[in-house]
Amino acid sequence: MNETLALPVVSWLKGLETNSPYLEGSQCCVCDVIFSGDRLHCSRCGARGKFKSIRLASEGSLYSYSIVYRSFPGVDVPYISAIVDLDMGGTIKGNLINVDPKPESIEFGMKLEVVFGDALGRKDKAGNSYISYFFQPATRS
Questions:
Q1: Is the bond leading into 21 cis (omega within 30 degrees of zero)?
Q2: 93: closest CA among 71, 55, 66, 128?
Q3: Quick one: 65 exposed, middle or buried, by C-beta within 10 A (0-12, 13-18, 19+)?
Q4: What is the CA radius of gyration of the chain?
């Protein structure tokens, strides 16, 4: 019997093998700006190849959002697509969950936390599932 794996949906989702997932980013060693994932070139200062890998913050605040009413077949709508400014730097896009997808339920600047879970039940040909990151309202203030 083959054991199935949990695969990350993005290369910068780390820690699945230890069941302690986190998001990894790159920090420019010249200007200190933080990006999600790996970078070779800094879009702020122009430095090339001067990055270090860092663990991104697990909390942030809502910068912008869109309530999506139309999507690909098999994707439940409506859902909230969010852009989140992470504490300690960096901005990432993902889905906001555990919030009613209505404008009156969402506030710009609301505190959010990164959570990890199954990516819509999708599997590859070998039966491996995919793990993604999501945002939800922070449980602590």
A1: no
A2: 66
A3: buried
A4: 17
Handedness of CA 32, 141, 131, 62 (dihedral sign): negative
Is the separation of the CB atoms in 8 and 18 below 8 Å? no
Full-model pTM:
0.89
Task: Count the Cβ atoms, other than its own, within 10 Å of residue 60.
Answer: 25
Give me the DSSP letters along the chain. Answer: -PPP-EEESSTTEE-GGGT--EEEEEEETTT--EEES--SB-TTT--BS-EEEEEPPSEEEEEEEEEE---STT--SSEEEEEEEETTS-EEEEEE-SS-SSGGG--TT-EEEEEEEEEEEEE-TT--EEEEEEEEE-S--
**How many alpha carbons lie under 13 Å from residue 1 in its C-beta half-sphere?**
2
Q: What is the rounded average pLDDT of the residues 49-55?
A: 95
| Per-residue pLDDT tens digits for 123-135 | 888 888 999 999 9
The CATH architecture that domain 6-16+58-137 belongs to is Beta Barrel (2.40)
Which tokens is 9 given? 């949906």
CA angle 101, 64, 95 (to 5 degrees): 50
